[in-house]
Amino acid sequence: MLKDALFGGVNAAVLTAYHADLSIDLNRMAAHSKWLLANGCNGLGILGTTGEANSLGISERIAVMEGMVERGIPAATLLPGCGTTAIPDTVLLTRRAEELGIRGVLLLPPFFYKNPSEDGLFAYYSEVVQRVGGDIKLFFYHFPAQSAVPITNTLIERLLRAYPGKFKGIKDSTGDWANTKGYADAFASEGFEVYCGDDSLLHATLNANGAGCITAASNVGCSVSQRVYSNWNNAEGEAAQATLTLIRRAVTSVPLIPALKSLVARNTANPAWTIIRPPHTQLTAEQDSKLFTAFDAAGVTLAKAA
């Protein structure tokens, strides 16, 4: 396991809460974030895929970062997604994050134009790092199933050498163990932090000198994820990983984001948690039943939220 990682440990890809009119419910989102930190999370990956970031406007993303800090979420625990297709928007979000005391941001590649060259991606990230300045660390967000833009080892290598100390790590959401391990093998020895985006790979990632996870299922499985992290090199960690894999399998048995919202709604006894922005839709009653049966079969009892 990589020691002294900036966001080392269990990071939830935090859900975004909404009011009935689809405006963001910052109070409920902050309450959920506090519950996560109290039940196994070391950090909070807000404004990611699970948080529906690409369904939010730039002003809304800023409001989420500000709102979490204003509501008592320690800025040092936050790792917001600030990558957009437009350089000025990415810079604006990243600078505001640093002003709030946030230590790092996740950056998707520019994902609208397909098949960009490596030189084009290098130029994009170069413009961002030069315009942002400051001390905030930049983390790559690799999710080619959604972005259709891979982040290769050669691109990472070029940026690490061109901008020493600025690019700190990567979240790999491929679910491809060979790919995640490839990042760790290539760069972890120099302190580059590799985070898996697939809960089922946490134990393996830690044993390959990775730093931890940034995952969707941590919204409901963070206590189990923490057992894996805290016992990464012993049998207890292996056993906890088996349970965590069952949790991951359950929440992906139906559409993932509404599944997590249904589970949190059940745990908080607050149906407002099922509200989701289009094009996502709430689970059907049949899907809820399938999800709850699979999740409960994993044998996890969630600490009740206030």
Primary descriptors:
single chain; 306 residues; alpha/beta; TIM Barrel; seven-stranded parallel β-sheet
Task: Walk me through what this model shows.
This protein has 306 residues and is an alpha/beta fold. It has one domain: Aldolase class I (TIM Barrel, Alpha-Beta Barrel). It has twelve helices and seven strands. It has helices spanning 26-38, 58-70, 87-99, 118-132, 144-147, 153-162, 177-187, 202-207, 218-230, 235-251, 256-268, 285-297; strands spanning 9-13, 43-45, 104-107, 137-142, 167-172, 193-196, 212-215. Strand 1 (9-13), helix 1 and strand 2 form a beta-alpha-beta unit. Helix 2 (58-70) packs parallel to helix 3 (87-99) and helix 3 (87-99) packs parallel to helix 4 (118-132). 47% of the residues are buried.
Describe what is shown at a glance:
With 306 residues, this protein is of the alpha/beta class. It has twelve helices and seven strands. The protein has a single domain, classed as Aldolase class I (TIM Barrel, Alpha-Beta Barrel), CATH 3.20.20.
Widest sheet: strand order?
Answer: 2-1-7-6-5-4-3
CATH-defined architecture: Alpha-Beta Barrel
| Total strands | 7
Number of domains: 1
State the end-to-end CA separation: 34 Å
Structural class: alpha/beta
- Fill in the CATH topology: TIM Barrel
Beta strand %: 5-15%
Main sheet properties: 7 strands, parallel
Specify the CATH homologous superfamily.
Answer: Aldolase class I
CATH class: Alpha Beta
Radius of gyration: 18 Å
Number of helices: 12
Overall geometry: globular
User: What is the chains' assembly state?
Assistant: single chain
* Average pLDDT level: 97
Which H/E pattern describes the elements? Answer: EHEHHEHEHHEHEHEHHHH
The low-confidence runs, each spanning 5 or more residues with pLDDT under 50, are: none
* Approximate helicity band: 40-55%
